[in-house]
Write a structure and sequence with these properties.
Keywords: Hydrolase. By secondary structure, this protein is an alpha/beta fold. Helix content is 30%, strand content 28%. It is built from eight helices and 15 strands. A hairpin with a 5-residue loop joins β13 and β14. α1 packs parallel to α3 and α5 runs parallel beside α6.
Length: 265
């Protein structure tokens, strides 16, 4: 396996509910900065295009079709700045259902993958969107196998392990995690990275959105459980290098995937 390093950027920002054009403009500007800092992938928070807790009426009004104007705009941003982008939005399916979607676009503006959030978080999610019914994707990007999860999903070890068993090296998690749940960054992310032997990149909001106060602390964790970088409570662009040797050495030290008895679990 070739030694391929990759540089990723996590955009921790305040939510701007309902301001689609302003949020796309912010994404454009942030992509330019990330590229200038050498990043190959920019990861934005959950539903960054619309804001998260926007309610069913706004979700219906602002939902973007798979090849809709938001999708086209983000592809243009990626191509303009020569950077892959993972971002969240409300997606309108052909059958009329709405999903909490994350979309990965490569640096040429081509759509690589879309994931519909399967594990909905309380009434905030359930009032707005339908649950996804497909397992999280694992795709090839820049010589790495990348898994996609949304927010609450990373708190379920089964979903992280599913990605790992399908070859994921890195799992990217756009999120909208509130400050009451800092245990995710403190405990669960290091545990998930270690037990499934993957890098984890968790891009969160900061600040407040209505009654919600977001916890910030966007985090990148190595497969050894070491926290490689973590933001504070203010807006920040984290830029982190991931290296293949760390992944390979950790998998030799902690051979959980190799030793897993799938016949008894």
């Amino acid at each position: 396996m070739a030694d391929i390093d990759v540089r990723i950027a996590l955009w921790q920002c305040e939510s701007r509910p309902l301001q689609v054009e302003a949020n796309l403009t912010r994404l454009d500007a942030t992509a330019a900065v990330a590229t200038a800092r050498g990043a190959q992938l920019l990861i934005a928070p959950e539903m960054v295009v619309t804001g998260y807790a926007i309610g069913p009426d706004a979700a219906d009004r602002l939902a973007d079709a798979p090849d809709g104007p938001v999708a086209q705009r983000v592809r243009d941003i990626a191509r303009s700045h020569d950077i892959a982008i993972l971002y969240g939005c409300v997606e309108l399916a052909p059958d009329g259902r709405r999903f909490n979607a994350i979309r990965l676009v490569d640096r040429l503006g081509s759509a690589i993958a879309t994931h519909h959030k399967t594990q909905l978080f309380g009434d905030i999610d359930r009032r707005m969107v339908a649950p996804g019914s497909s397992r999280p994707p694992v795709v090839e990007w820049a010589g790495w196998r990348v898994g996609l999860l949304t927010c609450y999903e990373v708190e379920f070890p089964e979903l992280v392990r599913s990605c790992a068993r399908r070859g994921a090296d890195l799992i990217c998690v756009p999120t909208a995690n509130m400050i009451d749940y800092d245990v995710v960054q403190e405990v669960l992310l290091p545990a998930r990275a270690l037990e499934s032997q993957v890098f984890l990149a968790y891009a969160n909001y900061c600040g407040a959105e209505g009654d919600l106060v977001y916890g910030g602390r966007s985090t990148v964790v190595s497969p050894t459980s070491a926290v490689l970088a973590q933001a504070g409570l203010e807006p920040e662009l984290l830029v982190v290098d991931l290296d293949r040797p760390t992944l390979e050495e950790s998998r030799e030290t902690y051979p959980y995937l190799r030793d897993l008895r799938t016949d008894v679990c």
